[in-house]
Amino acid sequence: MAIVKYSPFRDLRNLQEQMNRLLDLAWSREGGEELREGAWQPPVDIFEDENFVVIKAELPGIDQKDIEVRIEDNTLTLRGERKHEEEVRKENYHRIERYYGGFQRSFSLPHTIDQEKVKATCDKGVLTITLPKREETKPKQINVEVK
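The chain above was modelled as a monomer; its predicted structure follows.
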């Protein structure tokens, strides 16, 4: 029987590696989306039709001047900050469940987007970014003549 040196940290290291793999799976994002450091991430819906790609982000309680939308190298970046209300002291709160602080989300854009005509509007706490498609990339209907 061979003598094996006992290493208590080996089991802890293995456990840490397993937890890291588990968290990587749970926190993985969809392809094309980049997660940056931040306290929270606003939820988004992304959909498209034949003319536009639309991104809707929930940003309640955030002043429009605190929201930045930028396109650089075919990447759309949403950045902003939800500030804590100064009129109520933290000691007076019974519960704080909403996230405060800065956020950043980035999305890879397809090459079919006309970046010069992108529009962003904010209504009732929902930021809507409309990304029009280029004319040359839209599907064209070709009529077939019957003889």
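The chain has one helix and eight strands.
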